[in-house]
Amino acid sequence: MTSEPINQESSTRICNHMNKDHEDAVNAYAKFYGKIKTFKSAKMISLSPESIQLKIDDHTLEIKFDHILQDCSDAHKTLVRMIKSIPES
Prior knowledge:
By secondary structure, the chain is α+β, with helices and mostly antiparallel strands.
């Protein structure tokens, strides 16, 4: 399997997938990593090797990764690890 680079096309695909199929995870990223307790809407708007950008209501929030992502496979593993490391409330 070849590794797909993180670029504008893959960022858009990943964000669309996260917003459509994993809204609960996007909300959890905003609450835990962004330390935002209440909001009406959270959407992942971009993913780069360094961070994800979330649009929280009318504000943009950047959440930096703990390392530079190598490719889309690394992005997937990192996003899953991030959600699993959030303590259950």
